[in-house]
Structures are given as structure tokens and as C-alpha cells.
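The protein record quoted in full:
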Amino acid sequence: MLLRDIHTPADLRKLPPDQLQPLADQLRDYIIDTLASHPGHLASSLGTIELTVALHYVFNTPDDKLIWDVGHQAYAHKILTGRGEHFPTLRTYGGLSGFPKRSESEYDAFGTGHSSTSISAALGMATASRLQGNTKRNHIAVIGDGALTGGEAFEALNNAGLSKTNLLIILNDNGISIDRAVGGLNRYLTRLTSSRRYNRLKEHVWQRLDGDSNDRRLRHSVGIIQRLTGLAKTLALGKSNLFEALGIRYFGPIDGHNMSQLLNTLGRLKDIEGPKLLHVVTTKGKGLRQAEQNPIVYHAPGRYDIRTGDQILTDDGDSPLRYQEVFGRTLIELAEHNPAIVGISPAMLSGSSLNLMQEVMPQRVFDVGIAEQHAITFAAGLSAAGMMPFCNIYSSFAQRAYDQIIHDVALQRLPMVVCLDRAGLVGDDGPTHHGIFDLASLRPIPNLTICAPIDEHELRDMMYTAQLPNHGTFIIRYPRGSSVHSDWKSEFHEIRVGEGSLLREGSDMAILGIGHPVNDALTAADELQTQGISAAVYNMRFLRPLDTQLLDHIAKAGFRRIITIEDGIKKGGFGEAIMQYIAERHPQVTPHIKILAIDDCFVTHGSVSQLKSDCHIDKAAIILTATAPE
């Protein structure tokens, strides 16, 4: 078996070219077999296996720098760079990261996890090499067409076109990000790949130059390629090429699963100086029928049958709906009665369950592509014109739209709702995806109402309240999955903004929480009762505005200990907000406050339960804190 003998790309380069496709087939089988029982991002990696093999074969990694945008497609890269034996530990606690990670391997030239960063990073590294006198090193950024919709990618393309750096951008065009790719760029790429006239001209040029290996003739051929392919693009498409208009030489499109074509093309481009882009057309999920037919579901399908490829579904139909599904169904209910409501997602329709509304109200749901900044300001524009937008963004991705939340939304007091999905610890995706900074980062911003539901019923009530008149900008955060009730469809009730509530009476100590962690506080209080400790539990609901009246009551109640619990970072978070208020108004109580939150660190990947234990924000941590000596 070829794969068994490949430990580094240096081993790969010893193989004759005719052995590379069999190696790619073995890689594909190994990934399919492993991910059947060790879930991860399947379809993306299956689509880039031939490309990965060809890149490591042609280029001298790790001296040549290879950067994978997002990193969903980098599993074959991990296996070929000395991590094949440990590949089954992928995304497990203490195992391999699901994304490229600089501390994990010298072949991971740049850490990724969010989209649209690869061109910027590769351009920076290429510029550094030029300044350091190394003009021969290659810098390759592999970016998908979905990630190319991100604003940073356009900014980097604009900058790269003016540079003289040795930069190769591989555009992995499969028409998919997680959901279907959308927007004008996707239509443009489709036009490029489907133009028969252009492709015939392009193929003729490459065939005439095939086999030209002499350096002098190659340089002459490059000039011919530039002139003839540029002419072909203009004749076929009737207008200048987008990338070449930015100063980046464009090559392709080529078949990303044709190993011989990949090797020949990359070999030629390796010796062409300056910024260039190779357009590679691939099939997401290549090699697994179900993944090819349904790349959205098989982007990260969970466990599946290794023999049939069919998903193994554990939901028996009676399980509670996840927060995401409750959000999606609730929004439909609200929109049926409020014609101003619209839904917005930056390329996460299915993940956020906005696809449910899209099915019944397609004109009122907008997928803006991987463009969180644009999503927020687009929503702000809708709001300014009288609509009521619900903009749903994963918490860690919303970090990219911080300026827009401040400048375009809060400053103008616009009535709209930003739903931060996947808030708190998300588990196996690790530090690039944990939503632990939102409470602390948004808390200082004026004109925001920031809240988090304890369960699905409260989520519905918060959504209902947020779309009522005169409530301004609402931020609602909730975790991935983590359902509580099977009877999720409760009646709507307006919540008084800034009001918390007592959920469980107690006399010895008080536990104050926000969001889903309040459920851990309730179970901890039940167990403490068996130990003779009476603990009151308060659901504060709102970080901004705080229920100061309730806090005054708690401070005066004579509790010997007050514990706060949250699933966010400690610095600047919920607990510190409580501490700050009580220190100012009731300083004698401050020594009795204990904050349970995530310390000053980036949290690794692993199961949510394991990570909560490590971060000391679970039921056990509450009990330990409650029973510790004074």
C-alpha cells in the first residue's frame, strides 16, 4: 500500500508520476473510512485530494509555503505531512486539530479556521521572503469560491495585483461553501468554466505548448500563454477577466481531479514570477456518492455507515429540537404576523435553520455569502428603511463585524436583531470556533440590549420581544444544540427588558447565571440541597441592561457566598459586570463573590462536557466552589 510508506512530502516526491493517482485513491479511502466513526469535515477534503497530492509533489514544502483557507479541505494535507498515524484522533480532546495549526506541524504555514484569510497571509509571507532576499520561495494560497466572497479576500486580491511577489492563488471552484455558493462572483466563475469558446481556445494553447521543458523556451512559452489566454478570455467572455483586471495572471479553468493536468500546469506555473491564479474545478465530496449528491449534508455528516455511506441518524423523532431549529421555526411564526421581518445569513442558512424560512418565504430570506461585515450593514440598511431584520451569525464569525455593530447599528439606534448562534463552547471545532468572546466584547457598546435564554421557551420569548416596537437593537446569544424541552412550541410572552428572575429559593448562597449555564446552576443547587446547603438560583437573562434592582436585593439578602456562572471569557464578562456593580453599591459583599467563567486563554478542541470541566464552568465546578472553605 503506497500510503503506508508516505510519512512526509519528501517520500511522496520519490514516487513516479503514474503512482500518484493510486496514492490519491488510497488517501480518499482512508479519509472515508476514518471519518465514518470519527466525524469531521468530509466533503471538502474529498474534493481536494488530487490537488493536495499534486501541490506537495510539485512544490518543496515546507520551504515553499502552503496555506489552506478555512482548513476544511486540509485532511489529506495532514495525512501526507506526518500525521497519518494520528489521523483517527482528529478533533478529539488531546488529538489533532480539525484545522491547520502552526504549533502542530511545520507544514501548517499559517493557522486557519475562519474563511477568506489565506491570500492576505500568503501575500504577507511572500512579501517577507522578498524583503529577506529569498525570491525563489513559492507561496500558495488554496481558497474556495465560497471563501472568495469574503471581503478580506477581495482586499487581498486588490493588494496582491500591485505586488511583485511570488504568489500562487489556487481557486478551488466547487460551487459550494457550506450551503450553495451565492452572488455575482459565483455566476462569474460559472460563466468562466462553462464558456465553450474560451475553453477550446485555452485547451489549444496548452496542447501546443505541452512537453516544452526547456527553460528558455518555457519563458518564451509563458509570454505566449499570457497573450493568447488573455485574448481567449476577452474573445470568449466579451469583457476583461476580473482577476487580470486586478493585475493577477489568470490560468484555467482545469480539472482538479485530473492528476496529469494538475502536475503539468503546476509545474509550469511554478516558474512564472509574480502573482497568479489557477482556477481549479473540483467536485465537493468526490469519491463518495452520497457526498457528491448532497455536499451540504456531507460537509460534516457526523457518523455514517462505512459500507453504504449512509448517515447514521440517532434522532428517534422524540428528541427536543436544538436551539437552531427552534430559532428557525419561531422566526417563521413571527414573520407570518409581522410582514417587516426578514432573515439574513452569511452563508449559514442550513446551520442557523434559516433555510426553514427560506422554504416558505424565499423572498424574505437573504444569504449574502461569507460576508459578516456586509451582513450586519445590509441588515442595518433594511432596518433604516423600515424592515425588522433578524441577522443570524455564528458567535465566533460575528467577531468580524464588530465595527459594523458599533458604527452602523448601535450608534444609529437601529431596531434589529442579531442572533449569535454557537455561543459559548462549541466542542470539536476548537479555538477558532468557540463563541466565548461575545459577552465581553459587546458589553461596553451603548444602545445594545444583550440577552441569552435559559431554554427554548425563553428564546422564543426573547425573539418575540425583540421584534416589538421601540426595543432598539437586540443581541440574542444561544449555544449549539443543548436543548431542554421537548414541548418547544410555547406561547409567546413579552419579557421586560433588563429583568431577571428567581428560579429557586435558597438561604445560604446565591447562584447567578445567564443563558444555558443556568441549567447547570439548577442541577447543582439540587445536589447541594442533599448536602444541607440551600442555594438560590437567579436567571439574570440580560447582560445589558443589568437587573440592578434584583442585584440590590441579592446583595442585601445576607448570602454567605454569591457565585456567578457563564460560558464566556471572564475578563469583561457577565461575572465581572456583577462584581463591578456590587463593588460600587455594596462593597461589603464583594469578598463573597466567586466568578466561574473561562480564564484568560484560548480553549482547545474536545467534547463540550470535557471542555466545560477543564474551564471550571460545569455543575461540578459550581458544587466545588459552593462547598469550598470560606
